[in-house]
Amino acid sequence: MMEICMISTTILDNIATHIQEVVLHESTRSKILIGQMNLAHYADIAQLMNSLESEYSVKLFLLLKPEMQISVFYELQTALMRTVLSALNSADKSNLLKNSHADQITDLFDLLSDEELATCLDILHKKDREQVLSLMQFAPDSAGGIMNVDVITLMQNFTVAKSVALLPRLRPRRDLHRNIYVTDEENRLVGLIKLEDLLLKSPETQLRSILRQVPFIAEVDQDQEEIANKMAHYRTVTAPVVNEHNFLLGVITGETLVDVLQREAQEDVHKMAGSYVSQSYFETSSASIILRRGILLVILLLVESLTSVILGSYEATLSAFLVSFIAMLVSTAGNTSGQTSAIIIQGMSSGDINDSNINKILRREFFIGFSLSILLALVAFARVYAYHQFFWGSVVVSLSLGIIVFASVLFGSVLPVLLKKFNIDPAFSAGPFLATIMDILGIFIYCYIAYLILN
Amino acid sequence: MMEICMISTTILDNIATHIQEVVLHESTRSKILIGQMNLAHYADIAQLMNSLESEYSVKLFLLLKPEMQISVFYELQTALMRTVLSALNSADKSNLLKNSHADQITDLFDLLSDEELATCLDILHKKDREQVLSLMQFAPDSAGGIMNVDVITLMQNFTVAKSVALLPRLRPRRDLHRNIYVTDEENRLVGLIKLEDLLLKSPETQLRSILRQVPFIAEVDQDQEEIANKMAHYRTVTAPVVNEHNFLLGVITGETLVDVLQREAQEDVHKMAGSYVSQSYFETSSASIILRRGILLVILLLVESLTSVILGSYEATLSAFLVSFIAMLVSTAGNTSGQTSAIIIQGMSSGDINDSNINKILRREFFIGFSLSILLALVAFARVYAYHQFFWGSVVVSLSLGIIVFASVLFGSVLPVLLKKFNIDPAFSAGPFLATIMDILGIFIYCYIAYLILN
């Protein structure tokens, strides 16, 4: 009786525990474990290899069956891919490249030196080579960069019977999906059929007579985040990619959609916190991360040091009482602007907030901000007056706080919208930059109000 | 010649512009526009209705064809769903409920009062009613709460021919996917077949002989975020849901997966910024949002006011020079801890950071934090000394800054991990809470170092 689901993680934990014995591949246990590993899911094997020392990973990789090598390879981290590739002998390397999809090979080529690239291209057949070279012209985060080109498509003058007869000849080299896109004789997209149509319609039916509408068509240079949001909106898990002449170039698959959604979600969070690096965090060297994050922190530090100039110039106004509330005011401004900007930025990035509703949402945030500023001013007055019994001082602190909170909501909601108008990604370091602007503005408001009321 | 893709957005913009004329439904233009609207994509129609005043949306909804009403209805915002439902006459309401899937009806029931619920249940057939009631026991964000129960499944003793003959009888009431899950006679999951197997295998083949392994099986009470991460990991766009006896209960579809990924990404961002409300932002009243965000801000304000106590008690030490850098130190701490915590929290939530690599990543963050603290301390010293030529003062500021930066990275990376250990969602208000803790700690460090060096 077959196992319904692979119990791969237990096997792989076992391999990780006995990794030195396994890679030697001499003991009986090692042979059993390697045999079992070849039955595990490729994603789990890749995860194991990504967590091991790279010398062990390479040895393990060489012990995999050839078909498994191909599946596992494209799930490895970039650095490990490069190491594995250089460890393969030319027969294995040739096997890997010949059995990969053109779009997989294209992604791989970004990792290679010009020399390695030339060697790899030599291995490929002429047709594959042309396909790979034509794919290399597309930006990696455009439809052209993420589409799958080895997908089964059909022509509208085919009958159902002819289509069914074709399928076994096209597979497994080309992938089959439930939505099969249909073209005319010039390879222009004309619609789609569902896989089940081939089962349920009579054999002599021409595909042109059973075409369905395509809910969403991606243009080849369209950005992947926009495509993913549109596909989610239209509830479709595959989408065809066409060029400006409506020629069908490839298909964005459900797996790619999921991958893009996950990566874009990660990018948004990292960008908003100012910790974004262009590659994955796990694949970037510590030095690049320190440089990238360090530059941002240094810029913010220097801008923020403006607060010291403001505080210095209001030195005479600032009693010890007023000084003691500086950190509280600054912090509340950051918290409030962060709440608002997260909603606006995430909404714009996911497409939930768009031109049709942005004004409604901004008006709503202003109302929320106004209410919050009154609430917080009252609480601050109570807290400060209860502790210090200094009426005008409490007025200065709470009035400043109220104004700062309202300004934070105003900036936190309007700034992302303005940035987007100027085609700057609103997620970029929104959190720290907004907090810094609000700090400077907040300190100024506080000092000025203190000066007006107490002097 | 049919249109390949619906040009629905133009039509809908047109309707939005002439909405008052359209809902009157008297002019020729209105009739043409309504005719065209019924050809648009249901997701676009729902988006239009969600952006209009609700009285117009209800009138537009009533002008839709019955099939379209069902598709559009489940895409509407909660409040609008409720309004539309109460505007339907009993024939339309009955049509809507009878043609909905059991899981759609279950989601709907969360919106109704007990009385309305009873009326709706009355409309359903006995079998549907039982299905709906059994679904209502599952938590909305568990596998049971998001699974689709009206999905075609087959039995292992069926032949390919029998399966093909069954399909037209099961559709369209039940959905067909490319992965068709197969059970034994007791409804226990035994594997899956692909839709194309029914096309390519000979008609007399028994399904039991062509079963494939299921890459991932969800348990009925498993959390939706964990399921989505596993499905993405195993590159599968559908997953079967089973109970503790391995009985097949339903299927999580690709559309649901995409929906969960998008909602969880939004939730993570909102939680991290402390602006999370349990329903969608767009479906929550302003009063609830003000209350929810206000409570958090008030708590943070009161905790943060501890800084005023610390600053007050070091009053004698704090010269005007030292005071002027308080905001800069506090802000840098917030920026640094935000960078680190975003990486750790997002990684844990997406499954990229897990038990197998957390120690490696923490060690890496400590190293990055140490390097950043030295870099920022040097920059701060240069900035402060250049401006003020006060050596020991510059030492106090830069030394404090270095220690605060390192402590921020330490807290920003370790705190999320600790929270997770205690089963608290690490995303919850991580940003503001961390910033507040770091402010208090930072102010204390600053005052104490100033006291040690300058007194």
UniProtKB/TrEMBL annotation, chains A, B:
Pfam families with a match to the protein in the record: CBS, MgtE, MgtE_N
CBS domain: residues covered: 210-267
Protein origin, superkingdom: Bacteria
Membrane topology recorded in Swiss-Prot or TrEMBL: Multi-pass membrane protein
InterPro entries listed in its UniProt record: CBS_dom (IPR000644), CBS_dom_sf (IPR046342), Mg_transptr_MgtE_intracell_dom (IPR006668), MgtE_N_sf (IPR038076), MgtE_transporter (IPR006669), SLC41_membr_dom (IPR006667), SLC41_membr_dom_sf (IPR036739)
Principal location listed in the UniProt entry: membrane
Subcellular location: Cell membrane; Membrane
Residues annotated as transmembrane: 295-314, 320-345, 366-385, 391-419, 431-454
Keywords: CBS domain, Cell membrane, Magnesium, Membrane, Metal-binding, Transmembrane, Transmembrane helix, Transport
Gene Ontology molecular-function annotations: magnesium ion transmembrane transporter activity; metal ion binding
GO cellular component, as recorded: plasma membrane
Subunit-level organization: Homodimer.
Family assignment from sequence similarity: Belongs to the SLC41A transporter family.
PANTHER family: MAGNESIUM TRANSPORTER MGTE
Function as written in the Swiss-Prot or TrEMBL entry: Acts as a magnesium transporter.
UniProt protein name: Magnesium transporter MgtE
Organism: Candidatus Chromulinivorax destructor
Name of the gene: mgtE
